[in-house]
């Protein structure tokens, strides 16, 4: 049995099939931003995780120069969203810095660069019927780690979700669960060694893979022609096919 036929019948293959009907949109317009804010509020309220005294689900760092907000559209309907920050020793703005400053600054003081996904939200109306959404919503964080050649992908999450990140992203615990004033509940900080895990992550979950031009469309501030594409079609299947061809040629 070939790798591609095995993939087709696997969990990863089923997610790849869902990805075939997904488009990513980098949120730049005020109208799209309002849609994202409504989705964040709807999702956070459904799970009782609204920040303390939250008045709006748009914050100042949404507009940071190294923040990238994505909407995930399934059959052209917004179903989830995530914000991805590229964090460097010279630019330390991100959600995790505000929650776990000592640990984030320690990584940056060591000269590392980080990807910090935040404002992860899935429409509750799709959550149960589409178990692929957590994976596909977090996919831009993996694309970003490759594009920026980052050392770590951070995850500030509720403790109940830690097992998922450790299993899927091979994440290490950086800070055990502790109460946070901003949210009024416990959070833990994890980190994935993005350069070290890339090979086995793509082998196990090829829907995280991407072609260089998709990575540029997602994260370049200097898009060819100067116009941001309305939607970005995932290239995971194409990238996985290329890996298969190399594997079959060289064994």
From TrEMBL:
Pfam families: FeeM (PF21926). Transmembrane segments: none annotated. Residues 35-191 form the N-acyl amino acid synthase FeeM catalytic core domain. It comes from the Bacteria. This is N-acyl amino acid synthase FeeM catalytic core domain-containing protein. It comes from Rhizobium jaguaris.
């Amino acid at each position: 049995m070939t790798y591609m036929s095995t993939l087709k019948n696997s969990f990863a293959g089923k997610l790849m099939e869902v990805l075939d009907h997904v488009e990513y949109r980098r949120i730049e317009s005020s109208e799209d931003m309002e849609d994202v804010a409504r989705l964040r509020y709807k999702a956070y309220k459904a799970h009782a995780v609204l920040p303390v005294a939250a008045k709006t689900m748009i914050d100042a760092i949404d507009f940071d120069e190294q923040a990238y907000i994505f909407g995930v559209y399934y059959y052209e309907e917004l179903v989830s969203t995530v914000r991805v920050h590229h964090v460097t020793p010279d630019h330390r703005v991100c959600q995790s810095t505000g929650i776990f400053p000592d640990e984030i600054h320690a990584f940056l003081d060591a000269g590392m660069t980080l990807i910090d996904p935040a404002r992860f939200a899935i429409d509750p109306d799709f959550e149960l019927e589409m178990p692929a959404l957590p994976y596909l919503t977090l996919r831009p964080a993996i694309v970003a780690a490759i594009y920026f050649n980052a050392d770590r992908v951070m995850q500030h999450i509720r403790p109940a979700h830690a097992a998922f990140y450790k299993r899927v992203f091979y994440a290490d615990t950086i800070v055990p669960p502790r109460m946070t004033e901003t949210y009024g509940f416990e959070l833990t900080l994890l980190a994935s060694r993005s350069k070290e895990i890339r090979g086995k992550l793509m082998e196990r979950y090829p829907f995280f893979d991407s072609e260089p031009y998709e990575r540029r469309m997602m994260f370049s501030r200097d898009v060819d022609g100067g116009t941001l594409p309305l939607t970005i079609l995932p290239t995971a299947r194409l990238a996985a096919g290329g890996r298969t061809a190399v594997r079959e040629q060289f064994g």
